[in-house]
Design goal:
Strand order of the largest sheet: 3-2-1-4-5-7-6
Helix content: 40-55%
CATH topology: Rossmann fold
Number of strands: 7
Order of helices and strands: HHEHEHEEHEHHHEHHHE
Distance between the termini: 37 Å
Number of helices: 11
CATH superfamily: Vaccinia Virus protein VP39
């Protein structure tokens, strides 16, 4: 396990929901609106996490949904969050999907592809399981462009206090998470007619405690970094963030999040 992957710690479903899941749920419906698929189709979802995108797909009357994730912890949380007879949640790897060829009308992935080691293989697998005439869609956070502002602010202060933390920042680890980067990734993966769209949502924290708590729960790169800090260093990071984040008159913290979405037909 590499130094960077050791800090990802994506297995904890309930912690992920508090850290990133609540914002994932805001992006998912906007992505599906843009994707524009009709009712009654068979869907495959790669990397379902805790079920944010799964729930939105099911709300749009699909025929079936097969959701795959490599984490038993996430699958358990997804099954608890999304109880629907049309959905099956299954353990599996994006690079070798346990799904029959040409069994899906629409294959999607939300906020996952950047964590897959072989992205080209994952895109090839998405195309394999999708019927000709179907569609593929995916989206990733705009890490490289600083579009995930609450994470960007965390790392800004963390690196001021500990320059070595820069090696863990998502913008360095995922430099292709830009409009041009995801378009290039799609084209190199065989999706010649890919379109790219920015999806933006507000991330509003009621107060500093609401902002800070998810970083202490260990799910994700930034919380994983907090998890290994000594108590004094963690306290300095907390105080630095508390002093620098923008506040509204009521103490709320208003930031933005941007994702880059891709859609493409399968020939």
């Amino acid at each position: 396990m590499t130094t960077t992957s050791r800090h990802d710690a994506w297995h904890a479903g309930t912690s992920y929901d508090q850290y990133m899941g609540r914002w994932s749920r805001r992006v998912a419906p906007r992505f599906l609106d843009w994707l524009g698929m009709p009712k009654g189709l068979d869907w495959v979802e790669i990397g379902c996490g805790t079920g944010a995108l799964s729930a939105e797909i099911l709300a749009r009357a699909p025929a079936t949904l097969m959701s795959v994730d490599p984490s038993e912890g996430f699958l358990a949380q997804a099954r608890a969050n999304v109880a629907d007879p049309r959905a099956v949640f299954r353990l599996g790897d994006a690079q070798a999907l346990p799904i029959d060829t040409a069994s899906s009308d629409v294959t999607v992935s939300g906020l996952v592809l950047n964590f897959v080691p072989d992205k080209a293989q994952a895109l090839a697998e998405m195309q394999r399981v999708t019927r000709p005439g179907g569609a593929i869609g995916f989206y990733v956070w705009d890490y490289a462009g600083g579009g995930l502002e609450f994470v960007r602010e965390f790392w800004r202060v963390a690196v001021e206090l500990d320059p070595a933390a820069a090696d863990l920042m998502e913008d360095k680890r995922f430099p292709y998470c830009t409009r041009e980067g995801v378009a290039g990734l799609a084209r190199s993966g065989g999706l010649a007619q890919a379109e790219v769209e920015a999806i933006e949502v507000p991330t509003v924290f009621a107060d500093f405690d609401d902002y800070w708590l998810p970083f202490t729960l260990g799910a994700g790169p930034a919380p994983g970094y907090c998890d290994i800090l000594a108590a004094g260093a963690l306290q300095r990071l907390k105080e630095g963030l508390a002093a620098s984040l923008p506040r509204e008159a009521d103490g709320a913290i208003h930031l933005q999040a941007r994702a880059w979405a891709v859609r493409a037909p399968v020939r």
